[in-house]
Design a protein that fits this description.
The structure holds two protein chains of two kinds. By secondary structure, chain A is an alpha+beta fold. In chain A, the strands form eight sheets. A seven-stranded mixed beta sheet of chain A has the order 12-13-10-20-17-18-19, sandwiched between helices. Chain A has a five-stranded mixed beta sheet with strand order 15-23-22-21-16, sandwiched between helices. A four-stranded mixed beta sheet of chain A has the order 2-6-5-4, covered by helices on one side. In chain A, a hairpin with a 2-residue loop joins β27 and β28. Chain A is built from 23 helices and 29 strands. Chain B is of the alpha+beta class. Chain B is built from five helices and five strands; from the N terminus they run ββαβββαααα. Chain B has helices at about 25-35, 90-100, 110-120, 130-135, 145-155; strands at about 5-10, 15-20, 55, 60, 75. The termini of chain B are far apart. Classes of the chains: A alpha+beta, B alpha+beta. At the A-B interface, α6, α8 and α20 of A face α1, α2, α3, α4 and α5 of B.
Amino acid sequence: MRLERRDFLKMVGGGALMIGVLPGCKTAQVVGMKELSDDTFSPNVFISITPEGRVILALNKSEMGQGVATGSAVLVAEELEVAVESIEAIHVARPEFENSLGEAALSEIAPVGMQITGGSSSTPENYTPLRKAAASARLMLVAAAAAKWQTTAEQCRAEDGHVIHSDGRKIAYGALTKEAAAQDVVDDPPLKERSAFTKIGKPVIRVDAKDKVTGAAKFGTDYAPKNVVRAYVIHPPQQGGQVKSLDAAAAKEMPGVVDVFEFERGVAVLAEKYWQAAAAARTVKVTFTEGATNGLHSDALSVAAKKVAKGDGSTRFVNRGNVDKALAEEDVVTVDATYEAPYLAHAPMEPMNCTVHVQGDRVQVWAPTQSPTIVAEGISRLLGIDRSDVQVDTLMLGGGFGRRGVPDFAVEAAMIARKVDRPVQLVWSREDDMRGGYYRPAAVARMRGAVSKKDGRVKAVHYHGVAQSIFMDQSPFLGAVFPDWMPKMMKRLMLRANVGFINSGALPDFISLEGMATSAYDVESFRVDYTPVRTAMPVSFWRSVGHSYNAFIKETFMDELAHAAKKDPFEFRRAHLTAAPRHLAVLEAAAELGNWGKPIEEGWGRGIAVHWSFGSYVAQVVEAGVVDDRVRVRKVACAVDCGVAVTPDLVAAQMESGIIYGLSAAIDQRLDIVDGVVQQDNFDTYPCLRMHESPEIVVKVMDSDEHPHGVGEPGLPPVLGGLSNAIFAATGVRLRAMPMQQAWDRRKETT
Amino acid sequence: MSTKLVTVELEVNGDKRSVEALASTPLLWVIREELELTGTKFGCGKAQCGACTVHVDGVPRRSCVTPLSAVEGAKIRTIEGIVSKEGALHPVQEAWVANNVPQCGYCQSGQIMSAVALLEARGPKVTDEDIDAAMAGNICRCGTYPRIKKAIHDAAKKVES
């Protein structure tokens, strides 16, 4: 291997480090610290080919259901010329993968970044680097075969894991690894044109499907290191509360119990087996001090936010035209409406869990996490060690939705593990999971708008959003974005500066405004105001983040404006999207797919919505009604333009997923906070859409040559407004608050 | 909380097993930690989500609320027990793969155990209404329901009633 490797690694976003060992988790089974043989061909940070012919793809992203393992395998298979199913995609955490914050992070002057899966960014980020990594490997294998056969590369081609000579001779990649490793690294290999793709854009079976139907896939708690001890934690009712009194005498006598002790986050009960710990925890007598959330009531917060929303925002992000003048014109119809969305839990199927082994100043972590960097940073700060001394192996994630981008559960496991001489596996109960924080913030927004009586066009829209700032709450974790060598003091200073910038409005809180400030509707006068709310209830990224309430508000309000203008909501949107061709195309496709304008039975209605998020354009037609006072959705038609669809069937699956996840929130889900305590704590009080209420979903994936963009989140936002609009069409009742079942039940109180 | 230990004989996926644990131990944790069959998942702990579904004497049960003391002598079948002796996938598993049903996959062992029980009871005659009724106890946060419904119909064509 020549030194030029470095240049290539830089190109794919890395330093210069060989894959010698592959710590991490195969999608099928835990590989552990398995050494690959010396003759393994590892031309770059992503790809390794062993003499036995195994093709191993080091995944820089976490597979949490969105299909990134399969999508990445398809990208590699396309240029490496191997079968998709022959690729072993393995989660690997490595410093070279900490450059996932886009182009800026790749530049040498800003050596920052972190290995994180979020923002629906995996495919857009990896689309070119993975194909280049694979093409480079293929060219080196071909060169190796040509050298072996004493011919030129032009006489050879790659096909299905082999190099084939024009005279018919054929050699498997595995038999070429040693020679290939001696070839010059190809820095900037040419890539196939889209018309030559044989795998990208074609039907594919998920690479993790078989392991996930046989129970073989290893999720967080499915891997237990030798001598593991299980930890059950009794958390304070109010987050941040500390132990005031503790009597664990009875618990310590229970079978299997190893220890019971108080720590920063509550009381840890350790036992040989999970149930021994859980059973012993029930005998512990503990009282807690008040926590940081003491006195917080979501009802009172809602009342206060609505009052604030009526005034001017503390920051103005967009101010186009003259909103005040347009609203006061004589020949307009005005609409003034206040919308609301509640706090939400992510509630992935797999409760939070993490396994940690503290061995002196080295720490081994096994975690289902969206960001091994953030986990390592959090634990290194807790223990006062270097981040590079924390090895994080990512296990399969039983859902993420943003929740697993926060390291609280891993740091909690480390707090316990540092007091124990054995590996500790922490498993939260479902109740811990729902009460344990990091919620989608509640949001209130007042909307004012004016449509012309003459031509029915929107003259003005004024949005004033009032919501807790995710940006500010998540700032402490942004420390992981800075490189490990940066002095801790400097990290702290930069983080403090960051919060200050947001507070002062100098740094726009784009997360709170996303989906609104980015509206594509052609509106003469447009103003976007924002007032942040501070509470002690921790908030974080929840599938589609700011879009998860702003798209609801934008699309429902657009419908209200359409009705005020006495226009068809589809035609009304079209008229305001003439300069937005990709919006327009998905809108028209969804309308056709969803039978827009066709007759529908009494009691049912169609609602339409279109929204851009995370680079992708999605429109939906929702068919809904209220049957025996129950909000029901029977069909959703969806059109998506995400650029090149690498795995079209998995793109469709993500649309289905976003729609159902979104409908669960739109219809039923809310968290009520009473005196700092979240009231909902399991699926009986925090309902999820189930099979019998799940709609028929049809998806059209638009053909496109554009660079691919995300699909994990964009399917969700349009369904929220789409549902409200459908209920209005069906019943004449406008629901301006989520969850809409509650809004329906309360419609007489509020209207 | 009782500290009573019990020894219980079980038949798990065709094998005779003997387990000693707290009498209150849910079957779920016996399967996962004593028998080391980790395909069955913990989701809610109160029979709300179905991730822990296994068959007890042929009937789908929520193992997270089924105490060990209640299954003495029972025949237990888990996700690991529906593959044939030769290692061939069950038709339900095949249909799941062919339809790209799993996303995160965490709930799928429970979904599949519910679906297998449904098809063993209803066979090729299974209707959408049967599926709604039999699968309503299994939550999937990834929203794989439409594909599960399709996969059950596909599998129904291949299984004997």
